[in-house]
Amino acid sequence: MAETNLEPNTVVDKALKKRYQQLVGSLAYISVFTRPDISLTHSILSRYLNNPGEQHLRAAIHAWRFLVKTRNFALKASALTPDNTGYSIPGTAFNPEPIFFGAADASFADDLSTRRSSDGYLFKLFGMPIDWKATKQRSVTKSTTEAELYALSRAASEFIWWNNLFDQLNFKTDITPVIYCDNKQTVGIVTKATERLQTKLKHVDIHQLWLRQAVERGEVNVQWISTAQMPADGLTKALPKQKHVNFTRQLGLEDITKRLLSLHNN
């Protein structure tokens, strides 16, 4: 549902700008707390808060119409598998899911005006998202692998924070928590001693070396996953209808309209 080819407006209409900022500002709370499926949309619309035009306003209104249409979508925790090792998510390729895991993804150079990449991360606990973010990277990278490294590094920092919190709460799972990436070269670079990305970009090299260090210390367990199984895919790019439906399932979003009607009738 996210329109990714918007461009800044050159002439600012103050009334339009105010309305646009109100619409996009109100989306922030929803995208952060209850609807990860609109995180990318909010991230893109937020880039034009100072110079919106009619196309941006239409996109913001479209986002709100989508939310009204899907207002009964709710995050759902899933059922534990019989062996107590994960959670079953019906209708998805990634099944069963670990009790706790993270996923990071990037869309290389997709911002046409700056050629900066989009990235996103998602963390799930008990089959339900507990933390997610979609954003535009602060620096330009020169390859998909560099963009994926940047995204994975940011997600890994959050991943370590969550693990430290779980330790303080004395909460432990039976398996080692994992953070997934769908770029094999990136996974190899941070997990194999013989592989390293040769780059002259200092900030990329720092992220690379920090990730390798975190993996060596056992702070982060990075594993490859296919793009079809990547639950953070919809946080970095607009998806076709069927893929978006699958993305919604992976997020654990469920239409509870029938349940609400049943409660009302009872």
Automatic annotation (TrEMBL):
Protein name as it appears in the record: Uncharacterized protein
Organism listed in the record: Pyrenophora tritici-repentis
